[in-house]
Amino acid sequence: MNKIPTRIKNYEDMGIGLFIHWGLYSQLAKGEWTEYIHQHDQAEYEKLIASFAAENFDADKIVLAAKQMGAKYIVLTTKHHEGFFLYDTKGLSTFDAIHSLAHRDLIKEFVNACNKYDIKPFFYMATYDWHSPLYQNNFNDYLDYLLNSVKILCQNYGPIGGFWFDGDWDKKDANWKHSRLYGMIRKYQPEAIIINNTGLKERGQISNSEIDVVTYERETPSQVNHGFDDKYVAGEASITMNKHWGFAKNDLDFKSGKELIENIVHCRGIGANILLNIGLTGSGKIPEINHAIMQQIGNWTEMASEAIYKTRPEARVQANGNQKDLVLGNDKNKYLFIHDLEIVGNDNVVLGGEGNTLRSFEGFFKEIKAISWLDNGEKLSFMQEPKNGTLTINASGYVYGSDWCVRIAKVTFK
User: Fold this and answer.
1) Of 19, 344, 377, 405, which residue has the fewest beta carbons closer than 10 angstroms?
2) pLDDT digits (tens, 9 = 90+) for 300-343
3) Where are the domains of the chain?
4) pTM (2 decimals)?
5) CA 367 to chain centre
6) Other CB atoms closer than 10 Å to residue 4's CB: what's the count?
C-alpha cells in the first residue's frame, strides 16, 4: 500500500469532530427530514426563509463549546436536502442565508470562528436536493449547479479542512461526475479531506479514488477497512446524541455520557474518527441538553487528551478478559483503556471497587518501567513477562468522588 497522505494522517490525528445540522427545518423543531416525512407543501415550507433570523447564532460560542468538548474539527451543514444554503451563493440561488431574514453569510462567520480558535472547518453539502427542480428534471444541469455551489465554498473562505457530501445514495446508479467535482476541489483546496457518505446500506464503501475517508453512519463498526486500490483511507463513524440529526424538541431519548465516551474509545480503538452530532435550534443556539453532554464529554477528553489524539491502535497488542478494553499508542508510550471499574467506598458505603481488578494483555514484549492512571497519577502494580509478551495489571477502582466511565493507564518503558 502507498504511503499515507499527510492530509489523511492529520485528519486521523484529530480523532474527534462535532457534526452540526442547522437549516430552515430547525425552526419547526421536528428533525431535519420534516419537509419530506411530514409531507409539507414545498412552497409553504420554503416560506420559512422569511423567518430565518439566526438571531442567536454566535459562531464564537459554538466553536468554543466544540473545542471544550474535545473536537478538533466541525462539520457544518452548508446545505441540507431542503436545498437552503447557509452562505452567500453569489447569485447562484436566492434560496440562501443572504436572502433570508438574517441577511448574513453564516458560513463565513463559522469559518472565521474556527480559524480564531484553531478548529478545522469542514463543509457538509447535500447532493440530494428537494428544492432545485433540476435534480429531478435535468440531472446534468443539476450537477453543474452542485459543482458551482461547491466552487463558491472552495474560493471564498480560505483553507478548508474538508468536504462532507451526502445524498448520492438517492440516485446510486446515476453518473454523479465525481472526478469532475473532486478534481475541482483538489485544484482550489488541495489539502482538503474529501468524504462522501455512503449511507446506511453501504457503510464503509468507497465510490471514487479521491475519497479520503469511508463513513459509518449511526454505527460504530467492529473494524475499518483502510485499504482501497492501494490507497490508504481513514474511517469515520457519525453518531447522534438522540435519534435525530436536526433539532427535534420532542426527542428526549438522549444517549448517556458514558455511552458516548465508550463510543469515542471504541472508534479510536479500531482506528476511526468519531463525529458527534448536535442540531442547533431555529434561532441558532446549541440546545441546553446537548451543551451539557458536550461539557461532560469535555471533562473526559481533557483528562484523556494525550491518549486519544495522535495515537493509533496497537495491532500486536490485545486485551484478555473484558472485550471492551483496548490499547492505543504512539512512538513513546502505550495507553490501556479500562472499562467497567467501580468506585472505592469504605465500611459504611460499599460501592464495589474495594478490590483491585486484574486485567491482562498480550503483546507487551518491551520491558515496562511504570504504569499509572492518567486521571490522578496513581502508580499501578503489574506483572510482565517480556519473553512471551504478557502483562497483568491491578486496575484499582475509582477514587470516591469520581467515575471516568473509561479509565486510562499510561504505560512507560525502560
Assistant:
1) 377
2) 999 999 999 999 998 888 898 778 999 999 999 999 999 999 99
3) 6-310, 314-413
4) 0.96
5) 36
6) 14
